[in-house]
TrEMBL record:
Residues 440-450 have a biased composition (Basic and acidic residues). Residues 34-370 form the PORR domain. It comes from Cocos nucifera. Residues 397-439 have a biased composition (Acidic residues). Residues 370-472 are annotated as: Disordered. This is Protein WHAT'S THIS FACTOR 9, mitochondrial. One of its GO terms (molecular function) is RNA binding.
Length: 472
């Protein structure tokens, strides 16, 4: 069954004034970015989770024996997106990965370590596989709705691969999920080749389901009763503590919320690209997209790549900064992550998908190992240096020491990178207000007194780096 034609222009069917969508009243004002520490923590606590999960899947990909030589893992470093050398990454999580050395004769070459999972990791992996099997139908529906958002009813397969983690898809979804839903999906040659490359593939929708073409906003309005297509729907607003809208921006926002709500599953191409109504439709598309994702957040680059395939107007990125009560942009982990505010209470999801519950258990297991290892970090380095494989260990220790220095530099520069990301974005930045403004002011004055030429935070970070290196 071919996809249905796109709907006719909505203002003709819904009956609002034809000139409504042509107006543009957004005030020319800068909307300041205010830090939300809860949402920042929601992003930051998943540090290293994706490469950790990828390494776990690689390790358990062999059904005969869940183990791999270190050399094999190191060869897949780029595919796993490991932030540094494989051996160092593995040693960050001693309660998750076991490092073993095969017994060999003295004349043989020094053995390379073999990496095995701990029983706790095996248990969590089994729980995750059961959750994926239980949520198969729901996962397929969410992927189908993503394709329904696209005017062409198809998306590049490489883009779906990029969103696989956020969509909660199995790693081998083209083989394990898609074939079970032939009435939903088909993989076809790409209609346009990216960058002149050949052999590109698209994931195409087979059958459009009208019963699924209901957005999260509409579902909520229907549960409360009295909603009809085209009626105004106001987006939930949640601002960071200390954030204040200018009076003229607040007035514009109140009027903007009263505009008719156009479903993201409807065609918005007929709307004037710079109109308030087009902006509300764009917000609706981004809102629905984030709602389809398991963590209710994704990297800003993912939204940018999706924008052209979802029919969003040029410059739609500014919509995110125009509405800080709906979206929050976190600068943690050296990237920009767009978070759907209403889906979170501080750093916790309001409605937690089963996969997210398991991911939080992975995070807990990762930190469980770190808590033990961090207290004896220096002693552990000395013990590692005195192991049986002296030649291998000494060489590895030297390289690891160099990378440890680099890690300290990376930690010290992380805040600077965050500031640079904020400066490069479309919004002004402003720290979240402290509970005690007077105390905060006194601390600021003291820093200015001690560092009259500025650069206090940079000097402190440099001092910390020097102390850390000296301790190593």
């Amino acid at each position: 069954m071919p996809p249905p034609p796109l709907p006719s222009p909505l203002h003709r069917r819904i009956g609002w004034p034809p000139g409504l969508q042509q107006s543009r009243t957004f005030v020319d004002a800068r909307v300041k970015w205010v830090r939300d520490r809860g949402l920042d923590h929601a992003v930051e606590k998943e540090k290293h989770l994706q490469p950790f999960h990828a390494l776990k899947d690689l390790l358990l990909s062999s059904s005969s024996s869940p183990s791999l030589p270190l050399d094999v893992i190191a060869a897949h470093r780029d595919d796993l997106r490991l932030p540094f050398r494989a051996i160092r990454f593995i040693r960050l999580f001693p309660s998750v990965f076991l490092e073993e050395f095969p017994q060999q004769s003295a004349a043989a070459a020094p053995p390379r370590p073999v990496i095995r999972p701990t029983p706790e990791l095996l248990r969590l992996h089994d729980d995750e596989q059961r959750a994926l099997a239980t949520c198969r139908a729901e996962t397929a529906d969410r992927l189908l709705r993503l394709l329904m958002l696209a005017p062409d009813r198809r998306l590049p397969l490489r883009l779906v691969d990029r969103l696989r983690w956020d969509l909660g898809l199995p790693r081998d979804y083209p083989r394990s999920l898609l074939p079970d839903y032939p009435d939903y999906f088909q993989i076809v040659p790409s209609s346009t080749t990216a960058g002149g490359s050949s052999g590109a593939l698209d994931l195409e929708l087979v059958c459009y389901r009208k019963d699924l073409a209901v957005s999260a906003m509409e579902q909520y309005a229907m549960r409360t009763g009295g909603y009809k297509k085209g009626m105004p729907l106001a987006f939930p607003l949640h601002f960071s503590r200390g954030f204040e809208l200018e009076k003229k921006v607040r007035k514009w926002l109140d009027e903007w919320q009263k505009l008719p709500y156009i479903s993201p599953y409807e065609d918005g191409s007929h709307l004037a690209s710079k109109s308030d109504l087009a902006e509300k439709w764009t917000v609706g598309v981004l809102h629905e997209l984030l709602h389809l994702l398991v963590p209710k957040k994704t990297e800003k680059d993912n939204l940018i790549l999706l924008g052209e395939h979802l029919g969003l107007p040029p410059g739609f990125r500014k919509v995110i900064t125009h509405h800080p009560g709906i979206f929050y942009v976190s600068n943690k982990l050296r990237t920009q992550t767009v978070v759907l505010r209403e889906a979170y209470r501080r750093d916790m999801l309001v409605e937690k998908h089963p996969l997210m519950g398991l991911r939080f258990q992975y995070i807990h297991l990762m930190h469980k190992g770190k808590e033990t290892g961090s207290k004896h970090k220096d002693g552990k380095r000395k013990r590692n240096a005195s192991r049986v494989l002296d030649d291998y260990k000494i060489k590895d220790g030297e390289e690891e020491g160099e990378e440890e220095d680099k890690e300290y530099d990376d930690e010290d520069e992380e805040e600077e990178d965050e500031d640079e990301l904020s400066a490069a974005s479309d919004v002004d930045t402003e720290e979240e207000e402290s509970d005690d403004e007077d105390e905060h002011g006194n601390r600021s004055a003291a820093r200015e007194k001690n560092f009259p030429c500025g650069g206090a935070s940079r000097t402190v970070r440099s001092w910390r780096t020097m102390m850390r290196r000296s301790s190593v």
